[in-house]
Amino acid sequence: MAPTKADLEAARNATIDDVLGPGLDVLFCGINPSLYSAATGHHFARPGNRFWPALHLSGLVPRRLAPSEQHLLPAYGLGITNVVARATARADELAPEEFREGGARLARLVADVRPRVLAVAGVSAYRVAFARPAARIGPQEETIGETALWVLPNPSGLNAHWTLEAIAAEMGRLRTAHL
Question: What backbone torsions phi and psi does residue 121 show, to the nearest 5 degrees?
Fold first, then answer.
């Protein structure tokens, strides 16, 4: 059942747990949870978000998973976190300091978990969190320790510049380059 308007408002500023496991190939990183994701406890859960269909179309998982199946990701060598942990209705509600603090937290998390690739889904968030104002979609020159960095398009339905097929193709480029 979909969250009610009251559920969504109650989810403001809530956090959801990271999806982690040993030996991750790719740790996906969203900008921050939507109110819908926080209300359900599942990453990229808002209807219209293209993360889950793109993940399947890219060949990273053998079938389309539902957000409620996020617990299956570590078995595929995949995990999910966010740059900023707190849920908002829109990413533009976040302050630049939150992104910078999130980038520092991500560096610590990556040092602990040591995925092969950190894939940040949102170039604007990546630019601020990692102080890389000229960053573009795709592989990045820098690393965090031995972890490669890749910037993916934001899969939100609000990101009309990227189609589902183009997002899946970029995820497929990551898969081909690193797995």
Answer: -95, 85
Pairing of strands 147-152, 26-30: unpaired
Q: In b/e form, how buried is each residue of 142-157, taking b as 16+ CB within 10 angstroms?
A: eebeebbbbbbbbbbe
Q: Quick check: is 126 in a domain?
A: yes
Total structural domains within the chain? 1
CATH number at residue 173: 3.40.470.10
> Is position 79 within any domain?
yes
- The pTM assigned to this predicted structure is 0.97
Per-residue pLDDT of the chain (179 residues; tens, 9 = 90+): 899 999 999 999 999 999 999 999 999 999 999 999 999 999 999 999 999 999 999 999 999 999 999 999 999 999 999 999 999 999 899 999 999 999 999 999 999 999 999 999 999 999 999 999 999 999 999 999 999 999 999 999 888 889 999 999 999 999 999 98
Cα separations (Å) of 80 from 25, 83, 134, 137, 161? 11, 10, 25, 18, 23
| Euclidean distance between CA atoms 125 and 118, whole angstroms | 14
Q: Which domain holds residue 165?
A: 5-9+20-178
